[in-house]
Amino acid sequence: MNKLILTALATITFSTAAQASFQVIANSEFGKTSISKSDLTNIFTGLTTSWGGKNVKVCVMESSTGTAKAFLGAIGSEPGKFDQDWIKRELSGQGTAPESKSTTDAMVSCVKQSGGIGYIPAADAGKAEGVSKLSVN
Amino acid sequence: MKRLVFFIACLGLLGPAVSNAAKMDTRFYGYVDGYVESVQDQPGVDNSGARTELENSPEFDVPNLHVIVRSNYEDTTAFINLSGGGAGAVDVRTAWVDKQLLGEYLSFRIGELYRPFGLYNLILDAVPTYIGIEPPELFDGDHFLVTRTTNAMLHGKVNVGGTNFINYAMTTGNDERESDQLPVGLDVNFTMGTTLKAGVSYYTSGGAAVYNEDNPGGVVRWAEQDKFDVMGLYLQWTDPRWTVQLAGFQASHELVRDTGSGDYGLTTICSSANLSANSRTRFGCDSTLDSEEDYDVNTWYLRVGYNFNVGDMGQLVPYFQYDVYENEEVIFDKDFGGDKEAGLADDGKFTKWTLGTVYRPHPAAAFKIDYSQHLQDVQNESTNYGEIRFSYSYVWRL
Asked: Is the ipTM beyond the 0.85 threshold?
């Protein structure tokens, strides 16, 4: 939560940081090469906790990053709302907030946990070793 | 206190009982909140039933501290919410274990749990996240329509295409049942992503219910027994900036009053409570005590807020609320289970509009200020009075 708060403090701004593109990654155990946009939205907003019959562990980048902003925009959210929704879910017992990571390596490590799914900067796609890179349909 | 010790013991046992600790995700978090409020020029009723003006000094609510522990192990979740109240007492607000039975389609939850019922009951502990300081009248502590907590729940969700889901829950528990009745709560809603939520809630006491001091709900204190059901519809629309909520509920009661001379019997209430003339007539205080009454409680609300980002300062969310509450059975005197809002009105009805704003320096903290204007008929005279509130809340996580 501390990271969540710090992230939120840094991101609820009129920042004009350049928006980066992202690469969705998932644990290889899913055996997938693509994910639908609706599944992506459902998983990262907590609407569902499973994908392909397996429980998911959601990993996100700190929302001060351009990659996070680009990703949240793609699922119809923004940092403030995203954090608010997860606080609401956690305190009402409806979900467990994603792990927030600051680097690509940390994201890849997080996704290597069972059920892991997350995203990294598209420019770092080459660093996603040992996980599946998913295209978004 | 026994419950608290029991649940803490369960928490302590949960960790060592699981051999593969790496798969267990345990998180500690909680929040602190409090408020200040001042009611201005509120009329009241004196011992003779005549209208008077109450002297309300600003009221400071002692800060409340809540500690929450959530632990997941594969498809099982344990959740404990401890509340440190103003008087120094620690209470178990909720404590439950949830197990998936059929993926997300069906799960079973048991313990002490908030019931899914409308838009607010589950999220009232997430204080910074919603607009408004006070809960909707449905869950106002002076006149609950139904108990906030219950004991067992079957629940689940099904994806009906894209980001659309149907969520469902059926609950039962001790609630306010008199003996072996089976109270049942139902909640079904349709969600379209995080944008739209529309649902229906229903509750039946399943037969005779009595007032439960530990878990108050729809039964009045002077009830010998009551049989009631509650039905409601709710709708919420949000985009990243707008929040619009509309909900309405009706409770239908078949009440048998206690006409005795116990602490909350009508004989005592008629002689000792500050009853309005209408309440005296309704109860038969000045003739023959009236033991049976069928009555309805109606309430609905509209809430609208807009979220401004104010750069590095955080978020500012001005909001407007309109609440309506109507309950002819209510009395004024809180010492006898009354309610100073609805109990003041001749017909038990008041409307209230509220203007306010939330300031969030970050998503986990909120400072809220609002002003409400009550409108109601008091002794055949249309009456307005105002109320100003300030609240603060902070959510933390270890």
From this structure: no
